[in-house]
Amino acid sequence: MTRPVLQQSHGPEFTRIYAMGAARGDVVVSNDELVEAIDSSDEWIRKRTGIIERRRAPKEVSAVDLATIAGREAIEKAGLTGAQIGAVIVSTISNPVVTPSISTLVAENLGAGTAAAYDVEAACAGYAYGIAQADALVRAGVAEYVLVIGAEKLSDFVDPTDRSISFLLGDGAGAAVVGPSDFPGISQSILGSDGSKWGTIKMSGTYVGYRNGENEWPTLSQEGQTVYRWAVWEMAKVAQQALDAAGITADDLTAFIPHQANMRIIDEFAKVLKLPESVLIGRDIATTGNTSAASIPLATHRLLEEHPEASGGLSLQIGFGAGLVFGAQVVVLP
User: Fold this and answer.
1) 292 pairs with which residues across the strands?
2) Per-residue b/e over 86-109, b at no fewer than 16 CB within 10 Å?
3) What is the DSSP string of 13-25?
4) Distances (CA, A) of 107 to 83, 101, 119, 146
């Protein structure tokens, strides 16, 4: 018997990011508003994290709302309509329900019809994972244009008295449209995890435990020093792998946009990678805070607003966080 020959999809050889979108929480929260609960000071927070203030969303604004605003801007800047989006990927850890996903409602809100839609739960590496998947979906011919969004409302999961992470966290969403290109616009992605440090960034309890009265509402916490050492030394190696996979060196970069975890980590990254002074570095954390999956696209959006001349240049982006999960690639800035 002759086996029928299956048809497999295929798409363009290259992809790129067309445009970015952003949404930040409307509420500006200064360090002074948080220090009493953690018995600290504005000076301590600035020295330890580089954060001056963070943006948080009011109670009535959800991660879906933030994702929709950011996604709409990205689509409009790309010169597209929602109907042209073939897939919506939302990277988030802020979905307040187990199901349904945030992405399906965002797709509906943006007029994307019956586009493929799913959430990625890879915390601070989620956006890098989303870009890697969008690149693959377009080149496989599954979708012509893919909307990738990192969206977080982390203020819903903050314990104001926690000294390890509460003062770091903010709310926001960043979005990117990925589509076909005449030139290579997204390099090979370096993706991975280190489950041996699974508990270094974690929740204080479970939803089942909360239901059963065994723990309070689950909130975020971390082992700060462990995460700092892992990020600076191990993630610098991953960043270098991404440069090598892209076939470039640090001297070829226009920008470096790491996950906005901590300003000290960002500064150490730059030293370890020996970035030239000409390289623009994303430092959105100073006034936005750590927004997990949203941090890289938000920092990219701000960098392009402040430095429009960077458009067309190469940017190394790397996300790393809970899990511990990491992802990195080099992209051409839209």
Assistant:
1) none
2) bbbbbbbbbbeeeeebbbbbbbbb
3) SEEEEEEEEEEE-
4) 9, 11, 12, 11
Q: Is 190 helix (H, G, I), strand (E, B) or coil?
A: strand
* Amino acid at site 124: C
What residues are labeled active site? 124, 259, 290
**Alpha-helical regions (H) of 28-85:** 42-49, 63-77
Q: pLDDT by residue (tens digit) across 196-233?
A: 888 888 898 999 999 999 999 999 999 888 888 888 88
Residues in the chain, overall count: 334
Distance CA 37, CA 179 (A): 46
SS3 sequence, 71-107?
HHHHHHHCCCCHHHCCEEEEECCCCCCCCCCHHHHHH
What contacts 178, CB < 8 A, 6 or more positions away? 15, 16, 17, 18, 131, 134, 135, 138, 145, 146, 147, 148, 186
Picking from 180, 185, 176, the residue whose alpha carbon sits closest to that of residue 72 is 176
Q: From the CB of residue 49, how many other CB atoms can be counted at a distance below 10 Å?
A: 22
The three state secondary structure string of 123-170 is: HHHHHHHHHHHHHHHHHCCCCCCEEEEEEEEHHHHCCCCCCCCHHHEC
Q: Are 100 and 64 in contact (CB under 8 A)?
A: no
- pTM tops 0.70, yes or no: yes
